[in-house]
What we know:
alpha+beta, Arc Repressor Mutant, subunit A, 2 domains, 5-stranded mixed beta sheet, 9 helices, 31% helix, globular, Glyoxylase, beta-lactamase superfamily II
Amino acid sequence: MSTPTAYAVSPDSGEHWSAPGAFEVAPGIHRIPLPLPMDGLKAVNVYAIETEQGLTLIDGGWAITEGREALGKGLRELGRSFTDIRRFLVTHVHRDHFSLAAAIGAEVGADVTLGLGEKATLDIMLGATSVDEVPMIGELRAAGAAELAHLFGQDPSSDGRDEQSIRYPDSWLDGDLEVRVGERTLDAVHTPGHTRGHYVFSERAAGLLFAGDHVLPTITPSIGFEPAAVRQPLRDFMESLAKVRALPDQVLLPAHGPVAPSVHARVDQLLEHHEHRLAACLAALSGGPRTAYAVAGQLPWTRHEHAFDTLDAFNAALAAMETKAHLELLVARGQATRSEEAGGVVFAAVAGR
């Protein structure tokens, strides 16, 4: 069992992982935690890689004043500034990773790179793809969570947009490829699941994995929380975990949480967790057909096993959509069936499976 996020100390700092500063995780690589405006996730880790040409940053943080100030302070501890940044390699499009990179990159002329799989989400957010409503609202209805869908429909700020700095990146990553960062070679590995276009960056020579939100040391990443939804985000995520597990074991440099010694160990825990949740979802269907929202109501949530009805609206929405992802995978495995009805998609267990 991993240490709870609220108490997790990172070995590079000797302090709580979210404590401000610039902490060396390897020669020429520093972790800079930036604050987030939410209770659950205290910070996002940005990694600054020093080269003779300047800095490459893995992720950029959320485009809020506090995040910008913390990044500037961390860079000053390294004797650097925003103008030393040459490139952002952004693991995925969520605003706590992408939006500050997009803003600062535009200001200083740094290249901002993102996975091509995120284009569908940006097309929706930037209006290039016309939609009648925010797609997440439809996903909540399909999960049987009509009340949550109505609530989110009344609050545009809840749809994940950040109008300050949403734009297309300067360059895209497509497929698995090598990326040169000064004298270093990073393997850019496409790992869909958390989002369509999520990437991790592996430096095999140094034994490091910049994991973004794909592998987190103390929490399980949300699955498929993005405007451009897919039918099987959990299958994609578990296949991506297996893909990373096939790499040599490395030190885990996560976006949220402390530096951890073994990617393999944490991947094994995450795969085991989702198999356990799949079994729990299937057991919940033993009493008859149910929507994802109804199944979510029967399951405990977070490591503290909170009852579903104690969750706030945002986390209840995440729970409903994650439960739907588990149920959709049970359908793909032949253990459940799905039927689209007026109140949402209804799932039923397959007898004898």
